[in-house]
Amino acid sequence: MDWKNLYRKTEDLLQTYKNKAQLIVTSALHCATPCTAMGIPVVLIAKNQENINRFSAIKGIIPIYTYDDLKNNRINFNPKSLNIEDLKQYMLQNLKLSTLKEMGEKIDENELMQIRHNTQYYKAH
Predict the structure, then answer these.
(1) Is 38 contained in some domain?
(2) How far lies 58's CA from each of 42, 64, 99, in Å?
(3) pLDDT digits (tens, 9 = 90+) for 3-14
(4) Could you tell me the residue range of the domain that residue 7 belongs to?
(5) Is 112 exposed, middle or buried (0-12, 13-18, 19+ CB in 10 A)?
(6) 42-51: long-range contacts (C-beta < 8 A, 24 or more apart)?
(7) In 10 A of CB 43, how many CB atoms?
(8) pLDDT tens for each residue of 103-117
(9) Nearest of 56, 38, 60 to residue 46 by alpha carbon
(10) What Rg value do the Cα atoms of the chain yield, rounded?
(11) One domain for residues 9 and 60
């Protein structure tokens, strides 16, 4: 498949999640992150320690469960829908300032550092 078809299939899948999903149970970060961003409750189950390490970017936002949690009935299959609009704004502002900086524009370095700190240590409310 060429990239245009893959892109279209991805868009279709995301629209299906957005329009039909009431809960996502997955071990795939590339599924969990956009669903969380769309406000769909997500149960993320890490297959192994490598997955847990890869999932660090979403750690403060949603719980990361393991197969051991699944076997021992320690997973909340009724998670709340999250509102992370403030995190999305931090991420957009980080992108904007970082891009301007790379283009040689003068930016407020303290603001960029604060935004990156807020993003890195974000905790969903």
Answers:
(1) yes
(2) 11, 8, 23
(3) 999 999 999 999
(4) 3-71
(5) middle
(6) 42/79, 43/75, 43/76, 43/77, 43/79, 45/69, 45/70, 45/75, 51/27
(7) 21
(8) 999 999 999 999 999
(9) 56
(10) 17
(11) yes
**Into how many domains does the chain fold?**
2
The pLDDT of residue 52 is 87
CA distance 107 to 116: 14
Residue 59 has a pLDDT of 85
- Residue 105, CB-side half-sphere exposure with 13 Å CA sphere: 9
pTM for this entry? 0.82
Same domain for 66 and 8 = yes
Six-digit token string for 104: 């040689």
The ranges of the chain with pLDDT < 50 are none
Both tokens of 37, joined, read 């961003």
- Token pair 């299959």 is found at 77
Q: What is the H or E stretch that residue 45 is in?
A: strand 42-46
The residues pairing with 6 across neighbouring beta strands, listed in sequence order, are none
Identify the CA nearest to 86 among candidates 46, 114, 124, 35.
124
